[in-house]
Give the backbone structure.
Amino acid sequence: MLVRIQLPDGLAREDALSRLLKAIKSPAEGATREQLLARADAASLRAEFTGLFERILPDYESHIAALDEAIGRARGKKKAALTMQRLHVINSTEWQVRVHFNTHYEQQFVNGKRLASGRPASLQPNEREIIRRLVNNEVKFAMNALRDAETGEYTMDLERRGTLYGNAVNETLWLGYLYGDLSQDRFCRWVLSPAEDCIDCLWMAGRLDILQARINEAIAARQAKRPNAGPTPTEARYLRQIAAHTADQGGRWGTGIYRAQELARLGIVPQSGQLECTTNCKCHLQDVARPEGKTKQKEHREPFKSLMPKEPTMLKRRTLQPHRERLAELAKKWEHKHIRRA
């Protein structure tokens, strides 16, 4: 059977072929149902992972504290046995933490691919390596959290720390969402949450003007009481970064729309630990059509770097410094980077 297709005026043959192939691979009805299932599965997995870490850290602190108290009172063989028990608790908890990261990160990456393609998904070798790097990176921060629970040297409640680990699993969701469809003509928008004031997210979305307006309002409010008041050192630093990066914000069109391939090369997605707001990020990605009009700049080719980089919290601790320095070094080594499919 011969099928003849008539192209609309202005539509290139190559573009039409690409759209036709994508439509054949992802029929609308099946895609909608699979994407709904993927979204529900992703929400369920995040809730499960959050619940696990909201319990693991406080429970670990209580267990270690009880053992330390018993070790302090014991003598001889009993003390040695309790010390070995403490080491066993540390080793088994670290093993459980790594297992949870491995299983949940892999499943959430697959959910992201399903969300993008509208089809059941499996993992490619490059994607397995991406997940391995993500897990190795995040586990180093989790090990630091366990050290905090042992030493008591922390300021944020451990249950709240667990919630942030639950948020972090969605970095894997959005990476899976990108890698699930890296078609040449796929475009995604970085969508802000209404209250977002993270300079990195605002730069990605092309809305640094929001942060600039908030800072100027704060300065004006102080000047209403003290006419000579100026920006604080932190505000001045933000304003310098805004001035330096207003021209290159928001991708090629300056509106927060990127080719999926560009975002993959940048290696940045919502809930990423590289963002100023880290896992507290509330942004998301959304598929959109290619914008009309001329572009402002070329695609970004280099990996993303935060506009406000900060020292890892683990390096600010006073206890177990050599161990924490090693964790920070390994976390840096395993930071996410784009890995192409072989």
Notes: Residues 28-73 form the longest helix (46 residues). The first strand starts at residue 187 and ends at 191. Strands lie at 187-191, 257-259, 284-288.
